[in-house]
Amino acid sequence: MIIKDSIHGNLELSEFEGKVVDSPDFQRLRRIKQLGVTYLVYPGAMHTRFEHSLGTMHVASRICDRIGVEGEEKEKVRLYALLHDIGHAAFSHESEKALSRYFGDHEEVGKKMMAEEELGGLLLEKYSKSEIGKLGSGIEKVIVGGDVGADRMDYLLRDAYHIGVSYGMVDVDRILHTLLLEEGELVVGEGGLEAAESLLVGRFLMFSTVYLHKTVRIGSAMLNRGILRSIEDGMDAEEFLSTDELVLEKMLGTENGGKYAKALLGRNLYKQAYSVEGALVDAEKAEEELSSGCGCEIIVDLPPVLSRPLDIKVKAGGELKGLMEISDLVRSLFLAEEKRKKTLVLCARENREEVKQAAENYSR
Amino acid sequence: MIIKDSIHGNLELSEFEGKVVDSPDFQRLRRIKQLGVTYLVYPGAMHTRFEHSLGTMHVASRICDRIGVEGEEKEKVRLYALLHDIGHAAFSHESEKALSRYFGDHEEVGKKMMAEEELGGLLLEKYSKSEIGKLGSGIEKVIVGGDVGADRMDYLLRDAYHIGVSYGMVDVDRILHTLLLEEGELVVGEGGLEAAESLLVGRFLMFSTVYLHKTVRIGSAMLNRGILRSIEDGMDAEEFLSTDELVLEKMLGTENGGKYAKALLGRNLYKQAYSVEGALVDAEKAEEELSSGCGCEIIVDLPPVLSRPLDIKVKAGGELKGLMEISDLVRSLFLAEEKRKKTLVLCARENREEVKQAAENYSR
Amino acid sequence: MIIKDSIHGNLELSEFEGKVVDSPDFQRLRRIKQLGVTYLVYPGAMHTRFEHSLGTMHVASRICDRIGVEGEEKEKVRLYALLHDIGHAAFSHESEKALSRYFGDHEEVGKKMMAEEELGGLLLEKYSKSEIGKLGSGIEKVIVGGDVGADRMDYLLRDAYHIGVSYGMVDVDRILHTLLLEEGELVVGEGGLEAAESLLVGRFLMFSTVYLHKTVRIGSAMLNRGILRSIEDGMDAEEFLSTDELVLEKMLGTENGGKYAKALLGRNLYKQAYSVEGALVDAEKAEEELSSGCGCEIIVDLPPVLSRPLDIKVKAGGELKGLMEISDLVRSLFLAEEKRKKTLVLCARENREEVKQAAENYSR
Amino acid sequence: MIIKDSIHGNLELSEFEGKVVDSPDFQRLRRIKQLGVTYLVYPGAMHTRFEHSLGTMHVASRICDRIGVEGEEKEKVRLYALLHDIGHAAFSHESEKALSRYFGDHEEVGKKMMAEEELGGLLLEKYSKSEIGKLGSGIEKVIVGGDVGADRMDYLLRDAYHIGVSYGMVDVDRILHTLLLEEGELVVGEGGLEAAESLLVGRFLMFSTVYLHKTVRIGSAMLNRGILRSIEDGMDAEEFLSTDELVLEKMLGTENGGKYAKALLGRNLYKQAYSVEGALVDAEKAEEELSSGCGCEIIVDLPPVLSRPLDIKVKAGGELKGLMEISDLVRSLFLAEEKRKKTLVLCARENREEVKQAAENYSR
Predict the structure, then answer these.
(1) For C146-182, what is each residue's pLDDT tens digit?
(2) Quick one: closest CA in B to A243, which residue?
């Protein structure tokens, strides 16, 4: 089975991998966008977890070839790469927080899917229950999810391609050439300092221009709010395990969630009335007080925590060192990133002025 | 208003254009894929009519600059480019045939939308009823829909980019440089023969590898059938004017249309049992006879007629000539394309052998 | 040793390959342009045989991996790929015809270099005399020089990249995936028909827009003439085995070759006064008669014969068939190409009118 | 006149611009590499000042359109862009230092060429002496040579393309969209902070991986030394105003410069024996003492000063501010860059150990 990927070209799959891809659980990923509602700002961001999962498998496979993981071990790495996002609900990260109180984060949901039903049954054709249970806890975790792992390299490339920017265009080839497996971890070898730095620069630029883009955050915040309200209105949390569009459609029918879905479908978004650097302590309280003070709905949106500092290890002079430790560039990238993380105060366009003043008073 | 397009870079919109783009009718295009179910074969084909409409506006604008169309006339060309696909229903071309008996093709639906409701009201802010009614009948038709027009150039580029092939990567720049407006038509100027030929070569390769791909055709045929059955089951044809995913979801609930929707969602596709060159005469009769003979459902799928020979005019030695007439390459491309158009006999995997034999007998 | 290539990314070389690359004979290729004087029309065409040789090695290596050639055999394929153009003189093909009467074509010169001096000595470190003598006569000839071989795939990609056109952007990945070794030849496997066709379409478009470009041909013809005259003036043919620029410089000093060198350096080129389809029989006689008739220098330039029809074999239905035989597209490409091959009558700008008339009379 | 550029596509030139391009002085730029001996490390770096000059004209033209410079003023900007590097000698920057004591830097030489001979005469067809003399002192200087000017944007893009890295792939479109002309300077407008930052990040990564690459520096240092020695040996400094290859060839014939030319042609480079952060004070003295101590030639190579901090102004909140001042990212990029600037102690491979020890002792 050969699949033509827009980033990596022709991807070859074994017969068993082909079956996994053709299972309904995996096909579902075709209808879950990689970047949630980012398309509200960058119309090209229509790519899905389906493509990304295949691409991650491909990059993971190349890492295996590089560091000498082969045979059954390599097959397991590829399988885990393919399935690492299988547990994502509609709109991926945007729904994760709202839903995690109901059935755990996407990794836990994924575990469950692999143990049950169709996908679970399929995996049992080749692996024992215990092997399936352990999938994602060995070398495959490092290769797929590590700080210089396949997941990250694929999504930076793919997101940049679909958005149409060149910043994320990480030189995967060059990074792969320097990778080593040391003490059970992927590390960047001698002479790979610049390669590792450029990965982080690409990531930083993607964060500033895409992942932390103000309008993207507003869309995400409204979606989040809509999901919460819909569940409060009685919508079954399990429904969110279906797909992006259907979830929006179902939200439309709920009493308090509907207005968010409608706003997103018609791109009728809240505006930023105020912002403050960093993550506001006691945001919930602020939101309540501001809302009741102004008599309109207000969202106090905390900056995403996705972007924790990467803990990449680099081998230099025979020793493993943290990239943060030896690269002043990398240190400053993270400082710059931190400064760009703001708490936003959002409201409907017509309340903007009033909310702005209230927020200014509140913050004093 | 500036929108970042993955193909053409930053696109600038006037305030009025921005309002059109933000209207619910236009936002709907975000949920209508440019290439229908092509994603079943090429997972990257997730791009939509939304992006394509913006891109067409951009290319149309460049054509205007080239041939000296400016001011209000250029504004109209841009507006028409933006709206040329506004009437498409879910899955664009796949549903068009099935739906055209209910409310006309996408151009007629588009006309209606521009005359009514929200979009219509918006257009009245700037244009009179009669101007709106005539939109698409002047120079804008030639610039957008012509054989070397903006629509075609944008979709070839865009489809190729998302599928990840280079064949469609038409050299728009080079073609633009040779365009002239002569006798009310866009023609390719002196010295542009190769540019025009390369456009057609790109188009030919996209047809063979994408638009006429066997599995793409199978998916499209099943979708088509499902739409017809769903309407027979009582689903309102107007429903198809919503968006791709919702239509599939609604089809799921119909008695006879449901199985097609399910098959498409789970990528459980029919197989080709037999094929014959060209368009079979009396395909409907063949389908009925084969179905009743084999006791299973059979689809006899006629080759798409989309690809009519382009009637590009080239200026050579002071005269306008048909490209077909002066280029043996172009003539042979169309002959080759015609030979690749086959009638397919499709059925479920388990009936494949039986249907194959019946079709062989039938065709004798 | 790792070399960063602009087309294929990081290329890894063995220690021995690194020594070959660092030898003066190989370094000389840095100063021999891949496309001769094509830069007179496409300024980006500054790339050299050096880069192309490395790229050919890379593609050849991938073909080996695909068809199962490994170990020492693969090493030989890589070495031959690296050295397949080592015998090219200044300006590659433009000088080949003029020089071949003195010391054979570039393959013979290459053989000699591998047998002698520095490069010969280096090869003896690893191979016996007889092995070196046979290099290029086994499987390596097929993989590197075959009609779907590494040489052709690299130069189409590379030339297109530097010229800035997308037509030559052959989908190497896709072609590689279909290659088989059958009866000692590289053939395109089942399902690879479109891949092979697209290779030929890319090649055709490169021929029409680059390799057969009128001004490129004029530059090449003048260079050719200059080389011949310089040798007649006593310049040693061996001098042409140095590098592009130096050869032009030395030609400047010869009595009758100098004016051509000067014209090329200052881009002061002849013009086309007349053309006739196909290769004129007895071109030399025509040139003489026209020149003496008009009293000025005239070049009658025959179309290049480089582009013989490729004899690609495709496996279809278990049988090997010629691509020409089964693809009407490919047949028509070659017919179209043949029609574009013209004999050009060239002269200085000021004699254009007079020569045109003389040529018209002559051709009657 | 239309020229196909590999980066920007088709470039249109006026008749007068075409004449300038076809003049011998401008054609000379075809034989002066943009990146000197960088090809010793990145074989794709064969592009020339010729292509870069055309590309700079194109970007300058787009800046004019953006900020509203038109008519004759725009023509002058384009002309200056075309000619801004006309005074470069062989190997551009590598020879500039050595030659500047003889006839000034490349701007002074350029001025002279525009006042004299063929190029000067040509310019007089359209401009007065005084206009020519002032070329480069008005708005054209800002647009072409400014910190966010056309020169810089073109070379970052072009160098990255030919080297095959994506880091330099600056989003020119996005930067252009934010440019303003304020107080006679090009500044980045509101909302353009990220665009400006990404320009500097691209530049930083090009510096670390290309312009400051150790082996590139070694090649440049040897070339520099060779040029100096050749002039001391009596070679006429004016000779260096011819072209790269010819200069190397002529150097070959000088007594003390020849060995450097030979080393560069055969890629037989010095090695780094020692390095120290920053620019060593009194490098000349160190070089002398180390050389006489070790009894072999040693080069103490100071880090290039090319990369002075860019003084980009950004408009934020109605005020012009220095980018350095408001962006911690930019500040840290320059700190990081400074730390990467090292003084290198270079010598032949066989003396490496001895020189290393001597340098270690010396630096204590």
Answers:
(1) 888 999 999 999 998 898 876 656 778 778 888 999 8
(2) B245
Interface ipTM: 0.87
Q: Is A81 on the interface with B (CB under 8 A)?
A: no
Cα separation, B212 vs B302, whole angstroms: 11
- Structure confidence at residue C60 (pLDDT): 97
Q: Which long-range contacts (CB under 8 A, 24 or more apart) does A330-335 make?
A: A330/A196, A330/A197, A330/A200, A331/D332, A332/D328, A332/D329, A332/D331, A332/D332, A332/D333, A332/D335, A332/D336, A333/A200, A333/A201, A333/A204, A333/D329, A333/D332, A334/A309, A335/D328, A335/D332
Closest C-alpha among C29, C22, C28, C20 to residue C121:
C20
Average pLDDT over residues B251-265: 92
pLDDT band for B197, please (50, 70, 90 cuts).
confident
Q: What structural domains does chain B harbor?
A: 2-211 (1.10.3210.10)
Q: Which chain C residue has its CA at the smallest distance from D245's CA?
A: C245
Share of chain B above pLDDT 70, in %: 98
Choose among C2, C173, C174: nearest Cβ to A177. Answer: C2
Q: Which residues lie below 8 Å from residue B288, measured CB to CB, with a gap of 6+? A: none
Residues of A in contact with D160 (CB under 8 A): none
Task: Please tell me which chains touch A, using 3 or more CB pairs under 8 Å as the contact test.
Answer: B, C, D
Single out the residue of B2, B12, B28 nearest to residue A41, CA to CA: B2
Write out the two tokens for B236: 């309102």
Q: Is residue C255 helix, strand or coil?
A: coil
Q: How many CB atoms lie within 10 A of CB D124?
A: 14
Q: How confident is the model at residue D170 (pLDDT cuts 50, 70, 90)?
A: confident
Q: What is the pLDDT of residues A95-141, one digit of tens each?
A: 777 787 777 788 888 888 888 878 888 999 999 999 999 998 899 99
Question: Using the beta-carbon criterion (under 8 Å), do C173 and A2 form an inter-chain contact?
Answer: no
Report d(CA C122, CA C273) in Å as an integer.
51
Residue pLDDT, tens place only, C109-129 = 888 888 887 888 899 999 999
pLDDT for A169 equals: 63
C98 vs C104: CA distance, rounded Å: 10
Say if residue A307's pLDDT is above 80: no
User: Touching check for C205 and chain B: CB below 8 Å?
Assistant: yes
Closest C-alpha among A148, A135, A40 to residue A86? A135
Copy the structure tokens of residue D200.
């500097």
Subunits with 3+ Cβ pairs within 8 Å of B are A, C, D
